[in-house]
## 1
Amino acid sequence: MSIFELSHITNVFGIFGLLQVVSLLGLLLLLLKSAQYYLHRQWLIKSLQQFPPAPPPQWLFGNTLKDQDLQQILLCVEKFPSTYVRWLWGNHARVVIYDPDYMKVILGRSDPKVVRSYSFFAPWIGYGLLLLNGKKWFQHRRMLTPAFHYDILKPYVGIMVDSVHVMLDKWEQLVDQDCPLEIYQDISLMTMETMMKCAFSYQGSVQLEENSKSYIKAVEDLTHLIYLRVRNGFHQNNTIYSLSSNGRSFYHACQIAHKHTERVIRMRKAQLQNEAELEKFRKKKRLDFLDILLFAQTEDGKSLSDEDVRAEMDTFMFEGHNTTASGISWIFYALATHPEHQQRCREEVKSILGNGTSVTLNHLDQMPYTTMCIKEALRLYPPIPGASRELSSPVTFPDGCSLPKGFLVTLSFYGLHHNPRLRPNAEVFDPSRFAPGAPRQTHAFLPFSAGTRNCIGKQFTMNELKVAVALTLLRFELLPDPTRVPILVSKIVLKSKNGIYLHTKKLK
């Protein structure tokens, strides 16, 4: 046998041996992962024995029903008093809570948001108030709180009024067409304009600019894609997701959103290069949101990085216009489907505002019945249906049930607001629930969450809701479209799968 043949045989056996070793290592790794999976699942099952699984989970795909999260929650709220277990896929499980006492315990702690899920937002909105945890979150929260001081909010009412009038003028031109109007898109543009002008001193007309529509579309796409990713076990890995069609669409939409906020920052920085504009800034008693970001300094004397500024900008653009647009849209729908309450609100608004040409912050405090209707609509249709926390330490609830450190908890504000044990006829629109003197239970109504991480812009948002409702009712009667009943779906923000269509009848 030649040396060449011997060498060839040796190489073959060498490769064969190497393949055997690789196969053996692969098998051992598979067995190790399987054992880890089994042990972790047993730990989960043992930890969750006190909580009901509903419906019974399938071992791989869990018990999450496609596009039926809210319907599933309502069924579970009817059946189980405080909580249930929701299996997503494999070994991913969460305890869903909708009981005020449970809410009070979790929101009274300082548990971080679930890193795995909320990190999906990071390429879009960066690490601003929504995603930050710990010391840096506290620093940013304390730094930005002055932007929502009463004296800052007071002149914003006039800006809100102007933005709403632009939207209503557009609607007035469409009245003669006698066809239902999909209101969410126009309301999104209106809330975006309000946010841009109030928080970022923007001078343009957002509702009339084409690039604003592309931003609105990008935000819609981003929230939908994040919603899909959270539910897809194969898309949890960043590399795999970036190679998928959804991942490519997501990162493209991120670029559109970033271009928008970066343009606003550039424009504001350019304005502040002007001496006259800088002098105006120095004379301001209180700064708007973007001013605070641009001139803020951390505890060590450093200015915020461009990345931090954009993160807070993107966060507030998302939370400040998207969630508010959801709130206003559902309030309009609730009033359209309950004409007796709509008319009573209209009469109250007329008695306070007259023709609505002049609206002040004091006027907004004089609308008790309208405020009751707004709150009842927010109860039925909370703009943010839920939030999540990852337990940083073990927790024991008032009824004795407990969870270990590291467990994931979903706070279902939608389930809480629809819990029949808290309110009789929970599915009925009844503003008297919020009448002065009506019995209240703490942590039973949380459209803006609660605790240290409650919505920093709560009062700003409530003012905007009141302005939009008041001015709209002065000019239009809102009527439902019986052929297009909204189908509620939770896609980060509460939306309708088939749009929110209303008839707008001009009042004489």
Note: The domain at 57-506 is CATH 1.10.630.10 (Cytochrome p450).
## 2
Amino acid sequence: MQRTIDLFFKALEILLITLLSVMAIMVFVNVVLRYAFNSGVTVSEELSRYFFVWLTFVGAVVAFREHGHLGVETLVAHFGRTGRLICMILSNALILGCSAIFFWGTWLQYDINASMTAPVTKISMIWVYGIGLFTGAGMSLIALERLFRYLTGRVTDEEIAAFAGENLTIEQMAERT
């Protein structure tokens, strides 16, 4: 099962690379066309905006899985094991709540977004805003799995140390400042 999950997230990383690359190419070509030939590709402007939305929200799920979001290690580092576990449980419960609200809000807006079309490409706007369903569900599942492990005592000392920022090298800490 873990291998399947790892492959899924590897596919998401490839998707992120593809979205960023295509977005950069479209913007570059459009800039060259505008300045050199006084024209442009209108589809590229719209699609690059949509790709950026997808890049942001898919990237948020990948970053959450890799513990890449911002944390307050300075505060958490002062706590002992129990305090850190409590912080881990509270932060994931808060993330679960926010992700569930995000999913539910996207679900409620589904019919409205599905009925609207993009001005240039004429695609349904659910293809743009529907990413909230993926992001909300993905982050909720990750937070639920973590909460289950934390509450059943299946958390490792390495995970607790990582949560407090104790696993970072000097170079990694310097990157964060």
Note: The two ends are 37 Å apart (CA to CA).
## 3
Amino acid sequence: MSPHPPGRPQAARIAITPAAAEVLRHLRAQHGPLMFHQSGGCCDGSSPMCYPRGEFRTGGSDVLLAELAVEGVAEPTGFWMSAEQFERWRHTHLTVDVVPGRGSGFSLEAPEGVRFLIRSRLLTDEEARLLDGADAP
């Protein structure tokens, strides 16, 4: 069920490219339900890290930005970020993408010869209004 009433304009903080969704489907088949946590920069810059759901412990200092619905994946994939980092990024729309190359050894896609990355843009005024007024974390 959608968290938005019917007919109400919607906005999202995060999306996933078709290429990244394909990698996610492959990883889901191998590892079961998944989650992302946006790295704060220590291990692999600011790359989103993909883990089996629950392997990375989240807590009060983390924000759930979205539950990504990916066609072909049975359950939503949570996308988490530290609350401190979210405060700096709250005015951006993030897109999970994938590129060739080795990412962090901690993220599930590393052995696949690809790495997830984030592409970002500023939210439009309308998106910011909708998100800040309705479902901002």
Note: The longest strand covers residues 92-100.
